[in-house]
Amino acid sequence: MADQYAQSGEGRPSPGTPAIRWEEPPEGPVLVLLDQRRLPAQEAELVCTDPSALVDAIRTLAVRGAPLLGIAGAYGVALAAVRGFDVDEAAAVLAGARPTAVNLAVGVRRARAAHRAALAGGGGRERAAGAALAAARALHREDAEASARMAGHGLALLDELLPGGGYQVLTHCNTGALVSGGEGTAFAVALAAHREGRLRRLWVDETRPLLQGARLTAYEAARHGMTYTLLTDNAAGSLFAAGQVDAVLIGADRIAADGSVANKVGSYPLAVLAKYHHVPFVVVAPVTTVDAATPDGASIEVEQRAGHEVTEACAPRSAGAETGGGTPVAPLGTQAYNPAFDVTPPELVTAIVTEEGVVSPVTAGALGALCDRSRQVTI
Question: Can you tell me the distance from the alpha carbon of 91 to that of 209, in angstroms, rounded to the nearest whole number?
């Protein structure tokens, strides 16, 4: 089951509240999630005591964002092992909870591999559970470290592309601490620029239909005292035309071997606008988001969300729910096209920033070489 665990004052962010954490109360280990469906109006946490509760939290977007989903998946395997559930069954369900975000499956596989290796070594159930938990904690720590390195590489790239500072940066969806073990991906770069006094303004797309930009990125920007302005997704073009966008920074849920980038739907139109207006379009993501097994953009499975997310206006706390219940904004029976992601081809991407460095221009060869170097360092 997953229950509300704790909450802080309505509309008043608590900077110390982590997006995810492992707790071991007397009644047994649990995974605690900051419920992102309720933000920004209310900070509340969910307690997951079994894998099925975590799967539901992932599917309904209580926890979201590619790097954080990887961490959640790894902890989910550990939770199954510690609580005595079938680990392989739990791993299979967790890995398939959201198909586009490759990090989820990567995190699940890592913790499951640690669990299996411990069992094969004759360590027994308790030791195997400990191995899975150690793998999850290591992934959590590594992601925080990767976030800091991406911020550094991304800021150096902005300085190279846009000498002089005073950046006006446009971002889409949410890529901050709510999606990461650290301070995020694309948002972490903007935050680094802010701290150096080089960010003039952060333009925040609302991000339809679930408003992750309005609800979550604006929430994080406000928490850090950044100068930001919220806009509807379809207003971005007028900003480009007026010369008020210096760079676009987005994250990624999966990067194919050829450099095609799957990200929250609405990213591809921004790439087209950026290309036309000669504005850098930069993707910031950890190496774990690069999927060498996916050859190109056409091979990326794009998650299709429920139609009611488009045809109904939902309160933030029910955003992403599998059933309706919001206020109708379209006639009853209206069909909706609601892909969670779109795919941007590599020729529209100025650079991909990872913790291991920057790929620009974006080619299959350059991306593969960077990933190879990363694996050598890891080994």
Answer: 29
The pLDDT tens digits for 138-158 are 999 999 999 999 999 999 999
- Could you tell me which residues are beta bridge partners of residue 248? 170, 281
Indicate the pLDDT class of residue 324, thresholds 50, 70 and 90.
low
The pLDDT score that the predictor gives to residue 35 is: 97
Please compute, for residue 191, the number of CA atoms within 13 A of its CA located in the half-sphere on the CB side.
24
Integer Cα distance of 226 and 279 in angstroms: 22
Q: Where are the beta strands (DSSP E) in the chain?
A: 2-7, 20-23, 30-34, 44-48, 167-171, 199-205, 228-231, 247-250, 254-256, 261-264, 281-284, 290-291, 312-313, 327-328, 341-344, 351-354, 357-359
Question: Which one, of 262, 282, 252, 264, lies nearest residue 348 by Cα?
Answer: 282
Residue 20 structure tokens:
């995810």
Instruction: Count Cβ atoms below 10 Å from residue 299 Cβ, excluding itself.
Output: 15
Answer whether 118's CB lies under 8 Å from 130's CB.
yes
In whole angstroms, what is the distance from residue 88 CA to residue 10 CA?
Answer: 40
Q: Of the residues 35, 205, 253, 291, which is catalytic?
A: 253
Rounded Cα distance between 363 and 257, Å, is 9
258 is catalytic: no
